Amino acid sequence: AEEPYLELADVKRREQDLGGGLAVLELYRGAAVRAENQLSARIGPSTEDESNTNALQATLVLETSLLDRVLSESRNGTVLIYSVSSHGLGIWVYSNHVLSFQSVDEDPRYLRMLAARFGELCSHPSSSIDSVRATAHQLYEILIEPVADQIHAGQPLLIEPGSTLSHIPFQALLDRSGRYLADDHAIVLSLGLRYIPFGSSLDHGITSDSEALIVAAETGGIDSDLRPVTNAASEATRTSGHFRHAQLLVGNQASLDNLDSILPHAEVFHFAGHAGMNNEEMGLLLRRSQTDPL
Questions:
Q1: What DSSP line would sit under the chain, residue for residue?
Q2: Side-chain half-sphere of 263: how many Cα atoms within 13 Å?
Q3: To pair with 247 at 20 to 30 A between CA atoms, which of 40, 84, 90, 185?
């Protein structure tokens, strides 16, 4: 659970250690990609043991150093990292080589409801456009307006929403003048800073020379109740034509096994197909291997 990490991050922040607080949060969010030979420590009520405490401190020093490297490579972009705890909303902002924190007095239960509602509204074509726009504006006022003075027009944004806000399509948030967030910013969504390769840059655009992986999964694999996605293959073929170095996976080639082997080498990923939710986790629907039945 993320809550103990949020509590410890809050302690660090109140001690004026913003970098240490963010390191605690990223320690949790990046657990899946941490190298096996790194130190690990348990965060919880039993950390009174001196060896556990020392291990935790060493881990946080390593994590802080890594985050400094990742953040320093954001160059001309702004990084927004969100956390929702029982105390409300917290926003870490890295802009112009300065890390800051903004606390927003918002009921976390209301924010969770609003985020879920907006995600649901945006997923149904029959939704009232007035309801979509009203909710998009509400979320903009909560999530973007408190830190708007640190965001400059045309500046790329790296947004780490965290699990509570992960259903929100941030590109569709609407400011008071009626402009979408994506109208003024290129937006990258991240699961955590550890998922960003060293040497990457927010202002490194997509070009025809980018390594692209284009996937069309018309049926959604084993979920036979889903209707095929019309024109998914033709869309993927057209998209691949924009890149000199594109790998195109369609039909039975659009499998999870192929995706696992090729995706780590891709700079651009385009997917046409079904997505689904299971136990509050979202994902793309693919067959496991090329030999799986439709």
A1: --HHHHHHHHHHHHTT-HHHHHHHHHHHHTGGGS-TTS-----STTTTSHHHHHHHHHHHHHHHHHHHHHHHTTTT-EEEEEEEETTEEEEEEEETTEEEEEEE---HHHHHHHHHHHHHHHT-TTS-HHHHHHHHHHHHHHHTGGGGGG--TT--EEEE-TTTTTT--GGG-B-TTS-BHHHH--EEE-S-GGGSPTT--TT----TTSEEEEEEESS-TT-TTSPP-TTHHHHHHHHHTT-SEEEEEEGGG-BHHHHHHHGGG-SEEEEEE-EEEETTEEEE--BSSTTS--
A2: 11
A3: 185
**74 token code pair:** 């954001």
Q: Tell me the pTM.
A: 0.69
Structure confidence by residue, pLDDT tens digits, 35-82: 533 444 444 444 455 555 566 666 667 777 777 777 776 667 899 999
